[in-house]
Structure formats: C-alpha cells, structure tokens
Amino acid sequence: MPTHDDLERLRHRIAPLEMSPEEFRAAGHELVDLIASFLGSLRERPVTPGETPEQVRSVLGTSALPEQATPARTLLNETAGLLFDHSLHIGHPRFFGYITSSAAPIGALADLLAAAVNPNVGAWNLSPAASEIEALAVRWMAEMIGYAPDCGGLFVSGGNTANSVGFLAARRSRLGAGVRAQGVGVTAGRPRVYCSAETHTWVEKAADHYGIGTDGIRWIPTDEQMRMDVAALRAQIRSDEAAGDRPFLVIGTAGSTGVGAVDALPELAQICREHDLWFHVDAAYGGLAAGQPDAPPDLAGLALADSVAIDPHKWLYSPLEAGCALVRNPRDLVDTFSYHPSYYKFDEATRENGINYYAYGPQNSRGFRALKVWLMLRQVGRQGFARMIADDIRLTAHLFRLVQAHPEFQAFTCNLSIATFRYVPVGVEPGSTAAEAYLNRLNEALLGRLQQGGEAFLSNALVGGRYLLRTCIVNFRTSLEDVEALPGIIARQGRAIDAGMRPADLGSEQKAG
C-alpha cells in the first residue's frame, strides 16, 4: 500500500523525464543552433568518416545501463557531436549513393513538432487535426503524380510497406474475401504474381510474408532498356492460366533501383484489364518525376494503376521515414485491413466522415509522418518541387555526358537521375574474358575506396554481368560544381588502384583473345 508520504509526493508529481518550459527552451535553442551550424558545414565535411564498426563502438563505449541521471542539455550536446562526426551524411552535396534524399530542414522541424504533440494517427478522435492533415497530404501526393485525387491512401514507413499495402489489397480483391480467414489455400490454382527481373526485393518479402511464397513470383525478363518485356509477360500469363494457376497481380516499376528504368506502364495496364488482374506500380523513386518534360512518357500510366507506392523520403526530399500508399478505390483498403475488436470504439466516436487510419493499413498506433510532407509541399509548392526534380535530372544528364567524353570511362545507362558507368584504365581494352573479369574486380575495389574515402559516395549496379559504378542524384544541395568534380575524383582513385592491381599478363591475354 502507498504510504502517506508517497501519496503526498504524487499529489504534485514531477517525473524524472519532465522538463520545465524554461529547461526545454534552453535545451532546444542550443540544439537548433548546433544543427544549423552542422547543416551549414556539410560541404566542408567528408561525406563519411569511413570508420569501422569497432571505431564507432569505441566512441560509444561499453558501459552498463546508467543508474543515475544526466542533464538533458548535456546529453543533447554530446549526442549531436557524436552524430555529426561519426555518420555518413546523406545530405552532403556529394552523396550520390542511393535513392535516399537530402532531407529538407523544414522536415526536421516538422518531426520535432509532430513528436511534441504526439498524436496517435490510428484513430480520428485521437488525432483530429493530424488525421485531416494526412488526408489532405495523401490527396496532394496523388495530384503530384497525376493519380485520382479521390483515391484512398496513407503514409507508411517507406517503399517496402507502401508496396506491401498494394500487394495485400490486390490479394484480397482478386483472390476473394475468403483469403483473409482461410489464407491463399482457399483459392483454386496457384496464385501468381508478375514483375520484371529488375523489381526491388520488396516483392520477395511480400510474397513470403503474405502466403504466396517466393516461388509464386514470375520474374519476367527485361528488354535492352531494362524494362519488363511485355510480350514475355503476355506469354507467361497465358501459360499459367492454361496450367490452372491463378494470376492476380502485375507489378510495374516506375524507376528501377538499379538503373532507373520505367516499364511500359500503359501496356501493362491494358494487359491487366484484359485478364482482370490487379495493376500495382512501384513508383517509390520515379513516380514523383511524372509530368517532367525530361521524364519518360510511360509515367503517364501511373493514372491507370489500381495502386501505387511512392516515397517522399526519396525524391520529395523528406526526412526518413515517409512512404505513401495510394489505392484507387478507398474501399479496397478498408476491406483489406479493417477489423473491429470489442475494445475499439473509434468508429462510434468518429464524427461524420473522419478517417480512422487503423482501418486503412497495417498499423494501429501510427505516428504523424504526414506533417513533414504537408509542410514541405506548402513551403515550396508543386512548382518548387518540379524545379528541384528537373535540376536533379539535368545534373545527371550532364554527368553522363562528362563520363561519355572522358577517355577513362565507359558509360552505360542514364535514366531519370541515375547514371551507370565504369572506370576503364588506359591500356585495358574491354571485351575479352580476362579484361571483363579484371574491370569487374577493379571497379568493385574502386567503389570500396570511394565509399570509405569521404570525397564522394557512390553505389554500384550490375548490368549484363558488368560491375558498374552508379550515381543517383536526389539531392537539392548537389550543384554543377559537385558533378563536374566527380569524374576527376574517380579517375584519380582508379589510377592508383589499377597501378597496384592490374595483372602483368593482361595485355598479352587480350591480344591472344
């Protein structure tokens, strides 16, 4: 039983985690100042410190869970320095590595504001303003890509989850309501999913997790542009139908992870109509380029999809995490995700037509991801984002022209804001088995040095068995200066590696070949 002293203390309870307005203001101002200085110093910093896990762990130490308190301001200052000095900086203007964008400063402030209010955007009556902001932001995302603005949708953690929302809606819609209770075994015939060989690995996770099995995926080969082969898709669907299988989902890609390829979306939509299949588009990367004059016209096919996944933390420059799932018919989301346990009274409590987002997606308790996207869209508007995306595309096209003209590079692909190429040192002629094997080893070693060196950060792609360097620009801080410096950085490092790595007999083997 609590004592009298216990009860008196609880009468005016002050928990250890509480901060007075004065304490919070002082700590917050100091932290914002540190962050502002950090953002201003990005260009002067290395992209990455290139440290090993052991080095980072040594900074953190191995002490036991602390028993005593430490002042919040001390912790925030210490941790800010730790993160600034021991992180890879995705916001650096020479980060060309992956499809994760430089994050907008207003997005960071939005996450602070969202966390301070801390609405649970799973039910309208727990988050009235936040729910309405999310609904509006979903509509704006649809408008950005030319999709039906009266669609259903919600914000999720990222592309994997956004694509999985579409996958699950397709499963329920095309395999029938019984699949929710009885699983996919209730269907007659083996369920089949169709996607290109370039589709992101999210589809394997979805097929595994949601009862289809990865063997249920039909990986359709690609054409010379790395797009799904439409004729091969038609043939595979007909073959599976004749064998008694149950095709139900075709997945188009609008901006593949490797090379940025965009499938022939209008043709895929037509095939789906002919066979009554659900048409989903993974537009996590490329969807937001829809409408750009330099973007592939096939992006217009997004408007024909039953569901679309897009990632604001890719090409809308949002801080992580921010994915968005759009489904043409909002009822498909409710039919897929809604359950009504006795302890949920949210529907009765919701006024008029307020959305209870727990019924629209996989999460019940949900954070306020939409706030940063809503504020970013208001800050710069559609035209501001169109200009930044167009600039990223133009910079990539310029980089591709630079490597095409450089005597030590071989250029391969340029789609959207992704370019692929490889370093080919003077004296090595591509084509022979020995030369190709060496160039693969050389470029892999070169990428490792670049990723550890801190001057610029790239990634890789594998095209036709060739190991290529890959740049992706989804970064409003990247300038022409950064792009024009890159070939020189790569060539300098490539020459140094080649000098100590090239086999002595490579030239003679080439001649013999």
Helical element count?
Answer: 18
**CATH topology term of the largest domain:** Aspartate Aminotransferase, domain 2
Low-pLDDT windows of residues: 508-513
CATH homologous superfamily classification of the largest domain: Type I PLP-dependent aspartate aminotransferase-like (Major domain)
Any idea what the shape is? globular
Tell me the fraction of residues in β-strands, as a range.
5-15%
Q: Report mean pLDDT, rounded to a whole number.
A: 94
> Percentage of helical residues?
40-55%
Rg over C-alpha atoms, rounded to the nearest angstrom: 26 Å
Strand order of the largest sheet: 1-7-6-5-4-2-3
State the CATH architecture of the largest domain: 3-Layer(aba) Sandwich
- Tally the structural domains: 2
- Major sheet summary line: 7 strands, mixed
Structural class: alpha/beta
Instruction: Report the end-to-end length measured between terminal Cα atoms.
Output: 89 Å
Order of helices and strands: HHHHHHEHHEHEHEHEEHEHHHEEHEEHH
Q: Could you give the count of β-strands?
A: 11
In the CATH hierarchy, what is the class of the largest domain? Alpha Beta
